[in-house]
């Protein structure tokens, strides 16, 4: 069987990083805008109650912030959205905390930090904060996190005929692991997608999986040195290559190809 | 949905492979033992796989988790089945979906006990493909030579149940022609001391659904199943994935919804997808961790949703709660009842919780089953139910 063409409509987007706090401000940077003088503080996603937010680790706050932004203009309430969350690196601050405590004499872990250490903590905080009882997935794909998760999200959206939130997030890596995993920048990006056949306004995309040629990640879509470094080191920021295809100056027929694995690639086209 | 199970095997403290697992179940032989994991003195019972220690040749892939995945892949006919599929379809048309909660954090823990004088990782631990949450799939792709898409699902204790749902969707859209789904999680200090911090560990062998249960036992396992679209391979095991349900509790990170609303949704979705009524289900393998809360809530839901003709059990008394590998371990036990015609009893059950009333017993039951289900619930309120049916 040949891989079926997947289609979806992108209804809305959210984004957060050191120098942008929305899809609009990220787009300005991507289109050559100057970096703001100071880095953003936070994020502080308002949908998480303050008590919970204080205890929420950075990856959770990143993921929930961009998710909340994207759902504000999606035309549905958040609890109507099936969701898929992905991080290439996970929460290395909590890994670092746990491994340090466990290497010590007393080995007593904080119960809150332990339950926050699960990779699906952002999905948990999101579904709890928004009272979403729909399927929530939490996946990892290391350097292929973006392409694999877009594939997973588009298939789930189409096969279950549901609107879907997909959120990409990665936080700076803790010291001990940073020689292996370079990322030092926080980043989160969210899309709300509908099946291609849905009667809504949105940017229509198709995706095709191919096994015929070897594909590498496209060059950074921006010359901005901050965005280029982000794109290189933060696995979730590889979504910038798709973001470029969703920006206001893109036209029908524009494409971007990404590697999925050694033997498979995926090409997204703007319809 | 129309998905065939082509092959499967399981590796846990209750048996290094399916043949041994069947024998352990048959003879009521539990793999649980007093905690003897090096480095931990916690007073609890664990399901440790002793044979992992012999897998030491993984070089830069070495971790306890990868060793258990490798051990699991060597069992039964998995390698031969995969070789046949590679020959027919090529490596790029086979996918991998692995579930795990620890990935290889066991290796990161070990690395931190042996940092160099500058507090940095020593060369043997500079393993970027191991110290990340995708490690299980990266390793399985390396070990098997599969080159199609490979994804890791990390939704805590529902992880390797959800792999069936994702694998089935990939097949239905033709992304791959076969998919190796699996799960692997290993005992490590993070989970032992983490669950201890939540006061969830029992100092005794676990007793799911028993009036006197007092907590869980942790275990480790790997398990794999190979899926294809229905009718494309005549050499399958005669079992279909008939339905799945996926839902969220939207309640608490580490405590189940008090009325089990999310769990109810995942079970009813699985039934709907399979086009079945509850009374068609012969057997439900319960999540049944032996925690006070889970078993009470899950047991109440079962009596609410299913008639007494549906037999239930928790099999965690055999190998413990294997966390991210529990989904596949129990999916295999569940689907295997369609071949062995034996419903496993609920090990260590003596007196059913007085608040509960559904069909569960310690003894095995001989029955030719047609439709069977299994529940997996995880932290973050993440639920998955799988439904398997005998092929007509």
Automatic annotation (TrEMBL), chain A:
Residues 38-206 form the Beta-ketoacyl synthase-like N-terminal domain. Coiled coil: none annotated. InterPro entries: Ketoacyl_synth_N, Thiolase-like. Pfam families: Ketoacyl-synt_2. This is Beta-ketoacyl synthase chain length factor. It comes from Alteromonas ponticola.
TrEMBL record, chain B:
The keyword Nucleus does not apply. Belongs to the thiolase-like superfamily. Beta-ketoacyl-ACP synthases family. Keywords: Transferase. Residues 1-390 form the Ketosynthase family 3 (KS3) domain. It comes from the Bacteria. Pathway: Lipid metabolism; fatty acid biosynthesis. This is Beta-ketoacyl-ACP synthase. The keyword Transferase applies. CDD domains: KAS_I_II. PANTHER family: BETA-KETOACYL SYNTHASE (PTHR11712:SF320), POLYKETIDE SYNTHASE-RELATED (PTHR11712).
